[in-house]
Amino acid sequence: MDEKLNKEEVWNKCLAYIKDRIQETAFQTWFDGVQVASINKEDITLLVPNKFHYEWLESKYRTLIDESIKNVISHPLIVNYTVPVTSKSSDEIPSFVEKKDAPILPRQYKKNNILNSRYTFETFIEGKDNQFAKAACSSVADSPGNTPFNPLLLYSATGLGKTHLLQAIGNTLFKKIPNYQITYLTSERFMLEFINSIQKNKSTDFANQYRTSDILLIDDVQFFESKEQTQEQFFHLFNALYEKNKQIVLTVDKHPSELSGIKERLVSRFQSGLIVDIQPPDLETRIAILMNEAEQNNLNLSYKITEFIASTIKNDIRKMKGVLVRLLAISSLKQIDINMNLAKEVLKDIVGENEFQNISINHIAKAVTSKMKIPERFINGKSRRKDIALGRQVVMYLSRELTNLPLSAIGKQIGKRDHSTVVHACKTIENKIEKDLNFKELIDGFLSSLSKKY
Q: What's the predicted TM-score (pTM) here?
């Protein structure tokens, strides 16, 4: 090792090597929060945020980490991991999500304005599909009413983080600006209050109560569809605040041009500022979201189960978090550990039996033989040709990882082979994964694609 290189220099060069070889989102999620604790001629100790992070790095990126070290210092090192103790201050703890004390609910909010204190920018997991939306919301929170983003409109399918970002703006401003008049409510609540004001002959009071707002945060404006009088009231409120240069932020479940039953002049107002689309997060981001949620709830969840849940539910973060709530409840009430079988049962209940298929060895064999260009009939045969033997071993390894079958049953279904043959096959594949990065990526691809499909 070059003695002039300190531990940070070595690790920064390793990070540069790694960054060139994986996707940006993956790098930000798994390596941005990792620091080097110590390094010597024999080993390196990495400081990781938590046990989940360690398990994921060791499982998915160990070979790449080893390669990066060898590339930088010309010889391998033993890689160790350490997790910070909780007595350290938050500034000392590296983390891909910085934790902060939960804000107290704002006292100056109107009685019906309730923000969830957990919805902050710090707890929002960022990925390539929501980076722009988060940046726009952060900009608004930094300088409300003084950006070109007025109004700011976020649109996406349900459960992708619109409400989280909307309320994060409110929570940030409450902590940042004393006596700032923050109004947050759903469009449904707005309509119900309007109807109530008509019934009590207080429509004038209703028209005035929100005009003192410094910022207006309205969730799910698609609810205004076909409600003409409510639209009229909101139109005048919108204009009154906009003319005073007050910030307006809206969320909706579709692009405003696709809204039906809303007057054109109101749609025009919606489209007059910045419109930001939030797409479903990729697998890496979904896993990071689950890990963060599990950690916040002190839920002991292995990385395999985390990946399995994230691979099964792709388009709804809220539903994905619902799986964790269900697992936490069952584990706590029944005093049982969370394992893969329990996760599968919970997922079946949430996504439905028709959407959730149990993977079989036949499914695995079809995927492997198709990708590796091997005739499927040879998997159960006796051919010792190198490519066929390797494909057969891959099927055995994936069957162990993805099914609940005992090794003897796996061997029986793959050419009536015995338990020891499957053990040998799995060890062979594990060794090859450690030594061959391309082969590791092939196996990871099988695990990911098959988990998503079944």
A: 0.58
